[in-house]
Amino acid sequence: MRITQWGEYGIHLSAYLAEKHLSGSPVANASEISADQDIAIQYAQQILFRLREGGIIESVRGPRGGYRLSCEPAEITLYDILLAAEGGTFEVICETKPLSLERCKPSSECNLRNVWFGLREQVDTYLKGLSLQNLLEMPSSSQPSSSQGASSQGASSQGDAPVQLGHHRFELLADRDVADSLVVSKPE
């Protein structure tokens, strides 16, 4: 999984517009957004274009025009934003840049194929469960406690160490099926 600057800034710009929406003045122009987010105006405009094309934001014409969210912050997921900004969330090498045509075809017996597709499914499910509203409600500097990340299945009894990535914990459970082998928890 690789989130590029397009995706990262797409989320930041969308979160900024969500804050504006919740404050009662939902419209912001590209100059205001780029200045607040400290990115070049040309880059902000390219990202805003992608977000608009993806249905995340809409443009408002006129002297007080600019951009606003296309719907409520609770209705826009991080998955939606990454899909608009990057075109996807998780690039599976089998589809985009196969190691070899024979090894990576769908009918091959490559065991990794199921791992990568299962991982993408887990990541997408997680991102679909996080809205802009959730993002704005998260403490910005908190780290999940050790009790967070334990799913209804509990932590792995095999002693697998979770991986901490920002606010998210990833646990690979060796004794589970591929679809259930990744536990991703979010801060509560």
Helix and strand arrangement:
Blueprint: H1 5-23, H2 30-37, H3 41-53, E1 57-60, E2 66-69, H4 78-86, H5 93-96, H6 101-104, H7 112-128, H8 132-137, E3 163-165, E4 168-172, E5 182-185
Antiparallel strand pairs: 1-2, 3-4, 4-5
Helix pairs in contact: 1-2, 1-3, 1-4, 2-3, 3-4
Total beta strands: 5
The tally of structural domains comes to 2
**How do the SSEs run, as a string of H and E?**
HHHEEHHHHHEEE
- End-to-end separation in angstroms reads 24 Å
| Poorly predicted spans | 144-188
Kindly describe this structure.
The structure is a single chain. With 188 residues, the protein is of the alpha+beta class. The chain folds into two domains: 1-137, Arc Repressor Mutant, subunit A; 142-188, no CATH class. Helix content is 43%, strand content 11%. It is built from eight helices and five strands, in the order αααββαααααβββ. The chain has helices at residues 5-23, 30-37, 41-53, 78-86, 93-96, 101-104, 112-128, 132-137; strands spanning 57-60, 66-69, 163-165, 168-172, 182-185. The strands form two sheets. It has a three-stranded antiparallel β-sheet with strand order 3-4-5, covered by helices on one side. Strands 1-2 form a two-stranded antiparallel sheet. α1 crosses α3 (41-53) and α1 packs across α4. Mean pLDDT is 78; it is low at 144-188.
